[in-house]
Amino acid sequence: GQSLEQPSEVTAVEGAIVQINCTYQTSGFYGLSWYQQHDGGAPTFLSYNGLDGLEETGRFSSFLSRSDSYGYLLLQELQMKDSASYFCAVRDNRDDKIIFGKGTRLHILP
Amino acid sequence: DSGVTQTPKHLITATGQRVTLRCSPRSGDLSVYWYQQSLDQGLQFLIQYYNGEERAKGNILERFSAQQFPDLHSELNLSSLELGDSALYFCASSAFSQSLPYNEQFFGPGTRLTVL
């Protein structure tokens, strides 16, 4: 089967940098996406890596290495408003099913 | 505001009942996705429709069905409800096209279903 593994929780300090990892077991997929979800809110799209390497969007960066079956989301200059859950997701390239990881809850300390 | 609307916001019903959740995608988006999110669970992909046709199917139960209408709004029907069906149900839309393997999804605010 296909699965995405993420740490359930990560804690970091305001102003610091944090990396949220996503490892996967899937035979083929189009690319790795990341979504943010605040408590009581809907997921919002953060980034997408179709190719290996680093994608940067402001304070957020995302990385993919298909050879290592691994990706990560990097958040810099952490702000209290970044406290949320972060999900990685892929679309299977055989049947177009979408698979989300169970999410990483990010706690930010002042 | 993502531009995706879902109704109702909350739904409380009893086991064995049937409910319909409704979703209107962003203007111009042809693709609609349905997800289930239970407590402490990630997002479980249920089904995707593209321009009225079923495009991809996840682990959707046989008791659940969906459709996308000519005006592109979509409905998710849940029948013979069980306690375990209590969850947040999200609809998302995207400008998915057959030639692009991926498009950013825009999520609606969700419908919280409680089965008593």
Summarize the helices and strands and which ones pair or pack.
The complex is a heterodimer of chains A (110) and B (116).
Chain A: E1 3-5, E2 9-13, E3 18-25, E4 29-37, E5 44-49, E6 53-57, E7 60-65, E8 70-75, E9 84-92, E10 98-100, E11 104-109
Parallel strand pairs in A: 2-11
Antiparallel strand pairs in A: 1-3, 3-8, 4-5, 4-9, 6-7, 7-8, 9-10, 9-11
Chain B: E1 5-7, E2 10-13, E3 19-24, E4 31-37, E5 43-50, E6 53-57, E7 64-68, E8 74-78, E9 87-94, E10 106-107, E11 111-115
Parallel strand pairs in B: 2-11
Antiparallel strand pairs in B: 1-3, 3-8, 4-5, 4-9, 5-6, 7-8, 9-10, 9-11
Short account of what is shown:
The complex is a heterodimer of chains A (110) and B (116). Chain A contains no helices and eleven strands.
Task: Name a few traits of the molecule.
heterodimer; A: 110 residues; mainly beta; 5-stranded antiparallel sheet; 60% strand; globular; B: 116 residues
Please characterize this protein's 3D structure.
- The complex is a heterodimer of chains A (110) and B (116).
- Chain A is an all-beta fold and 110 residues long.
- In chain A, 0% of the residues lie in helices and 60% in strands.
- Chain A contains no helices and 11 strands.
- Chain A has strands spanning 3-5, 9-13, 18-25, 29-37, 44-49, 53-57, 60-65, 70-75, 84-92, 98-100, 104-109.
- In chain A, strands 2, 4, 5, 9, 10 and 11 form a 6-stranded mixed beta sheet that branches. In chain A, strands 1-3-8-7-6 form a 5-stranded antiparallel beta sheet, with no helix packed on it.
- Chain A starts with a strand and ends with a strand.
- In chain A, 37% of the residues are buried.
- Chain B is an all-beta fold and 116 residues long.
- Chain B contains no helices and 11 strands.
- In chain B, the strands form 2 sheets. In chain B, strands 2, 4, 5, 6, 9, 10 and 11 form a 7-stranded mixed beta sheet that branches.
- In chain B, a hairpin with a 2-residue loop joins β5 (43-50) and β6.
- Chain B is globular.
- Chain B starts with a strand and ends with a strand.
- The A-B interface holds A 30-31, 33, 41-45, 48, 50, 87, 89, 91, 93, 95-103 and B 2, 33, 35, 40-45, 48, 55-58, 90, 92, 101-102, 104-110.
